[in-house]
Amino acid sequence: MPTSSPGQNRFLRWFHATFDNWFFRSLIGPAQTSNAVHGCEQDARDGWKRDLEARKQYTREQRERKRLEREAGRRT
């Protein structure tokens, strides 16, 4: 089994830190809606905004449900 040199390890760490991050960020998309989708049609931008709002609404509902459960647990 060939051994790797320290320089090669440093290159691999840099490569993964740079391109894996870039690839992941390009998959998940930006966290804000202003100028979020460039070069797309207005319908695509609007759909992205609706999807983001639906996800935020789901998170708010889950947070509220957990809060109500905690309060109900304290009362009993």
Model description:
- This protein has helices at residues 6-28, 42-75.
- It is flat.
- The mean pLDDT is 78.
- By secondary structure, the chain is mainly α.
- 75% of the residues lie in helices and 0% in strands.
- It starts with 5 loop residues before the first helix and ends with a helix.
Task: Give the end-to-end Cα distance, rounded to a whole number of Å.
Answer: 63 Å
- The amount of helix comes to over 70%
- What's the shape? flat
The pLDDT mean sits at 78
Quick take:
The protein is an all-alpha fold.
Which descriptors would you attach to this protein?
single chain; mainly alpha; 76 residues
List the helices and strands and how they pair.
Elements: H1 6-28, H2 42-75
